[in-house]
Amino acid sequence: MNTREPAASQDTPALAASSTEPDGDEALDYLAARLINGKLTGRPVENAVDLGRIERAVREILIAVGEDPDRDGLLQTPARVARAYAELFAGLRVDPKQVLTTTFEANHEELVLVRDIDVMSLCEHHLLPFRGSAHIGYIPGPDGRITGLSKLARLVEVFARRPQVQERLTSQIADLLMERLNPRGVIVVLECEHMCMAMRGIQKSGAKTITSAVRGTLQRDAKSRAEAMALIIPR
Ligand SMILES: Nc1nc2c(ncn2[C@@H]2O[C@H](COP(=O)(O)OP(=O)(O)OP(=O)(O)O)[C@@H](O)[C@H]2O)c(=O)[nH]1
Ligand SMILES: [Zn+2]
């Protein structure tokens, strides 16, 4: 893979361009291993991005804001930031479709809902974090197939580790679930606080942005949607 090219678009992640790239569960386990204990087995995620280029850019930023990048405390900072960005944007290198390859027959045709999945992402406007919870529900299709609960959280992770806006993050999760699980309906609700509104600009901390994406029968049928919503955001 030519790591000097701009990252792939949101819809076509730059995954598996070469056979040495991790793909599917391997890439996800890989990302998970990094997130959980900082240890990697195999090829580091960092290798997929141009760390040197990020380092040079960060050094420039430090100079531009009036810092001395050669002072002791900042010497390692460009390299650290480069590694951090590799991790924070690792979702660009993972094909989200690979998350939902495992499905099970359960003959369950009613709502499955996972609430309060931790979400941390970076807004694409300021590259500042936004953070909160995702709630994901779906009604399995006529074949009653379900997926592993952790896969829903992994899906959030893959899409969140990209430069994002909350609205797109929400609909990407919903659309992929529709595509891969062929369910009767999907509902995704995200509630997040954006640091770009808290630390800078208007400086309103505590404001929560709520976005939803509803598909299939949950979109068409107001009663089922209200029932799902009541479970997601109890009064
Ligand atoms: N819709 C949406 N807006 C976002 C998200 N994250 C950040 N923003 C907004 O993106 C907008 C960018 O607006 P601009 O006017 O181009 O940038 P700005 O001058 O930094 O804006 P201020 O934050 O108002 O100072 C801001 O209003 C942010 O609050 C998001 O996930 N969704
Ligand atoms: Zn922002």
From TrEMBL:
Positions of the GTP cyclohydrolase I domain: 54-232
GO cellular component, one term: cytoplasm
The EC number(s) this enzyme carries: 3.5.4.16
BP GO terms, sorted: one-carbon metabolic process; tetrahydrobiopterin biosynthetic process; tetrahydrofolate biosynthetic process
Enzyme class per UniProt: hydrolase
Key words of the record: GTP-binding, Hydrolase, Metal-binding, Nucleotide-binding, One-carbon metabolism, Zinc
Residues that bind Zn(2+): 123, 126, 196
SUPFAM superfamilies recorded: Tetrahydrobiopterin biosynthesis enzymes-like
Pfam assignment, any one: GTP_cyclohydroI
Keyword Magnesium: no
Region (Disordered): 1-23
Pathway it works in: Cofactor biosynthesis; 7,8-dihydroneopterin triphosphate biosynthesis; 7,8-dihydroneopterin triphosphate from GTP: step 1/1
GO molecular function, one term: GTP cyclohydrolase I activity
Coiled-coil region list: none
Catalytic activity: GTP + H2O = 7,8-dihydroneopterin 3'-triphosphate + formate + H(+)
Bias type Polar residues, positions: 1-21
NCBIfam families: folE (TIGR00063), PRK09347.1-2 (NF006825), PRK09347.1-3 (NF006826)
UniProt record similarity statement: Belongs to the GTP cyclohydrolase I family.
Complex and partners: Homopolymer.
Protein name: GTP cyclohydrolase 1
Protein encoded by which gene: folE
